[in-house]
Amino acid sequence: MEDLVIQGRFILNGKVVTGYIGICDGKIERFSKAPLRGEDIIKLKHHEILLPGMVDVHVHLRDFSQKGKETVESGTKAALHGGITTVFDMPNTDPPIMDRETFRRRAELFRRKSYADYALGFLIAGNCREAREVEADFYKSFMGASTGGIYSRNFEEDYSCANRRLSVHAEDYKLIQEFPERPAIVEEMAIKRALHAAKSLKKPLHICHVSTAGGLRSILDTAPPWVSFEVTPHHLFLTEKDYRGNRFLRVYPPLRSREDVDFLWRNLDRIPVIASDHAPHTLEDKENGAAGIPGLETELALLLDAHNRGLIGLWEIVEKTSLNPAEIFGVRNKGFGIGKDADLIVVNLKEEWVVKPEDFYTKAKWSPWEGRKLKGKVRMTLLRGKVVMEEDEIVGKPEGVRINAQKG
Ligand code: DOR
Known about the structure:
Blueprint: E1 2-12, E2 15-24, E3 27-32, E4 38-43, E5 48-52, E6 54-59, H1 72-81, E7 84-89, H2 100-113, E8 117-123, H3 128-133, E9 138-142, H4 155-160, E10 166-169, H5 173-178, H6 184-201, E11 205-207, H7 213-222, E12 227-231, H8 233-237, H9 240-244, H10 258-266, E13 273-274, H11 283-287, H12 299-308, H13 314-328, E14 344-354, E15 373-383, E16 386-390, E17 393-394
Parallel strand pairs: 1-4, 6-7, 7-8, 8-9, 9-10, 10-11, 11-12, 12-13
Antiparallel strand pairs: 1-2, 2-3, 5-14, 14-15, 15-16, 16-17
Helix pairs in contact: 6-7
Bound molecules: (4S)-2,6-dioxohexahydropyrimidine-4-carboxylic acid.
(4S)-2,6-dioxohexahydropyrimidine-4-carboxylic acid is lined by residues 60, 92, 146-147, 169, 251-252, 279, 291-292.
């Protein structure tokens, strides 16, 4: 007898199948074609399909002295609403997470307030000793200043002191001074430098939000196997033309040309990870030039909408938003398979809805896709076998736990 049985369509190893998933003690216990008995049963409806919860490796949750922008509570509720069950917390907070005591405070804050499971990040910029002392789930470095203003003067040295995979924001600080609008060259040169460092240091590296054709080409042509990378929904679904009409779309790296965006799409099958880079700011801060786009509650819907338009396969979505990020960052208990945490989402592939930021849980009450009709919606989210979001309502509690990571 299972604790919970889910009956309906799901996707397994690339194929859509109809059957039963048995869940015990919060973990996936079996997949079956034949009926399973359970204390509880969830039956999927027509047009619904079950997918693994998303593992989002790039999320800015603010809190600390920036509760007006986002809190761990509001941000992790937004994650569950958008089908994301694990968030990677970015450390460019105020104060930044660069020392043991702040890291300890962050861990405590998440333990009390997080509705989703989480990985904790640590910022490295000239603080090697502290970085070595802390067992973070991943490390972060900025090669050029972004929100928070902290960046690495010596990227190679900072990279060398990460205990686990280093996520890098690749924009060159010297070129930013020369070209404040951050044209493609700013990213391309930083990616080249990061790849060069990766080849000599031979340590796991993850290049964040690749946005340019040139940057992506260098990675595809020359990156060693220990280098992973991501693209974001805003760099896939918006271009610099949108930015010209709307200064709310300021983001680092900036939105790019149609040619760059097309290049990302043409090479989608070689892009391992899609991550939201959810970067919430207040409306006032956006008016004053803050960079960043909120994305937790639109990411999956945009991808499902693209799927409905024939642009991306469902299995590709699953790989890039769940399986690959879990694997790359060494998150043993996440992904989709027997023995994994039952972090699952039920999506309706055909439901049409209109993006209304006022209905979102994030405190960033705006979205580049406001007013856009999207086809595809998350109806239910389960975290370790418990329903935590249903029909837009968060029904879970702040019971998120830290991931079980191995060296990734
Ligand atoms: O536009 C951005 N906003 N890019 C980043 O790298 C950071 C982010 C933020 O934290 O606001």
